[in-house]
Amino acid sequence: MEKEKKIREKKGFLVDWSDMLKDPGLTAAVAVMFLVFGLFIIFPFSKLVILPALSDWASAFTSSKVMTAFWHTIVSSLLATTTAIVLGFIFAYAMNYTNIPGKKFFRVVALLPNMAPSVMTGLAFLLLFGRRGVITYRILHLTFDPYGWFGLWIVQSLAFFPLAYITISGVLKAISPNIELSAQNLGASGFRLFRTVTLQLATPGIASAYLLVFINALADFGNPKLIGGNYTTLATLAYATVTGNYDMPLAAALSLFLVVPSLLMFFVQKFYLDRKSFVTVTGKPTSGLTRDFVSFPVKCVLFVICTVVCLIVLTLIGGVVGFSFTETLGVNNAFTFEHFYSNVLNSKTMWVSWRLSMIAAVVTACFGVLLGYLVTRKRFPGRGLADFLAMLPASLPGTFIGISLIVAFNKKPLLLTGTAVIIIIGMVIRQIPVGYRNAVAGFKQIDKSIEEAAANLGSGSVRTFQTIVMPMLKNSISICLVYSFMKCMNTLSTVIFLVSAKYNVASNTIMNLADWGAYGDAAATALGMLLIILATFGIVKLILRDKINIFDL
Known about the structure:
Largest sheet: 2 strands, antiparallel
Helix content: over 70%
Number of strands: 2
Radius of gyration: 25 Å
Distance between the termini: 49 Å
Order of helices and strands: HHHHHHHHHHHHHHHHEEHHHHHHHHHH
C-alpha cells in the first residue's frame, strides 16, 4: 500500500516537466503546439481585447446604431436558432426513430445546405421570392418584400438547420434502444416515452446544437448583407466600420459585442449539463434491437415535414441552377453556359478558394492529430490549457477571429495582411476544434497498450507516432480533411476581413456579384462551390469506400 501511495504521489507540474524533458520528441512537439497557440490564438485575441479605449467603448454603448444592431443580432439569432433546432430535431428523430420511405434521400438533401455556402441560401431566396422573384413576382404575380427580420429568419433557419440535424442525430443514434424498450415495458409509450426518456437523453445534443447554430447565426455575414436590408446586424456593421471608416478600435469593440452572448450561451449550456447526468450504461452492444415507438399518424406528420423542407431546399438549389444556366431566369430563359464557364471553369477565384481550402484542411488535420495525441496520450505541463485553447475557437464568432487577425498582423515584422497566409490561418483557427475532436475520437478507439508496448521496445514518441498512431488514424484524418475542406470553402464571416484583390475567395465573390446585380454569375459561383465540394466527397468515397459514410447521419 505504501508503494502504491508513493507511485500515486508522483504527479504534478514538476514530475510532468521532468518526464517531458526526458523525451526530446515530446518536448519539441509541446513547444511547437504552444508556439502556434501563442502566436495565432493568444496574441491576436488578446490584442483585439485591449485595442478599444474607454472612448471607443463609450461611443459604442451610447451609439443608437450599435445598440440597435446588437439587439437585431440577438433577436434574429435566437429566432433562427430556435427554428433550426426544431427542424433539425424533427429530421434527426425521423431518420433515427422511424422507417419512413425515402430516408436516404432525405439525409442527402438535408445536408446539401451545409455543403453549400450559407450565403447561397440567401441568394436563392432573394432570386426566387424577392421583390422581382421568379416565383413570387413572375409566376404568382405577388408583391413580396423579403428584406428585414422576417426574410432573414427564414433564410438563416434553412441555412443552419443541417448543422442542428448533424449534431442531434449523432446523440440520438448513440442512445441505446434498451433504455427506451425498458421504459416501454414499464408502461411508458407515445408522447410520455418521448418526453421522459428520449428527449431527456437527447438534451446534450440539443444543447450543443443550439450553441453551435447560435454562434453561426450570430456571426453570419452573407445572409444579413443580402436579406437584412435596413435590419443591420453587428457583423454587417463591423464590416462597414472596417471597410468604410477603417475604425479598427470600434470594429474590435463590435466584435467583442458578438463574443459576449456566445460565451454566455456556452457557460449557460455547460452549467446546465454539468448539473445532470446523461450517461447510459448498457453493457454489451445492442445490435439487432430496433426502435418501434412512433405511431403511424406521427410517422405521417414527420414524413410530411421532411418532404416539405426537402422540397424547399431543392427549390432553392433549383433556382440557383436555373440562374446559372439561363440569361435571366424568368425574364430570358435562353440557355447559356457563359455564367458557369466564366465563374467556375475559368475562374481564378474558384481556384484560389480550392487551393487555400485544401491547404487549410491539411494543416487542420495534421495539427488536430498532434493536439489529440499530446492531450490524450502524453503528460506535460499545461495539458488542460492546451485542451481549452484547442476548443476556444468553437465558441467564438468568425467575425471576432477575422478582425483579431487583421489587428495582430497588419504591421511589420508580422505583416500578413493581404497575403494568402492570413486567409489560411483564419480558416485553420476556425476549424481547429473540428480537427481536434476528430483526433480525440480516433485515439479513444486505439488501445493505449499498443503504444506502451512500442515504448517498452525502445521506440521514441516520434517513431511511435509515425509508425503506429498515424496508420491507425486514417479514417479520422480522412473525415477531418473532408469536413474541414467543406467548411473552409464555405466560410465567409472569418475571411471577409482577410481577403484582398490578389487573394479573393469564392464566398466573398458571391456577395460582390449579388451586390452588383450579376445574379447569374453569383448563382454560378455558388453552384460551382457546391459541385466542387460534392466532387471532393465523391472522390474520397471512391477511395475509402465503406470506411467513411459521409451521408450516414
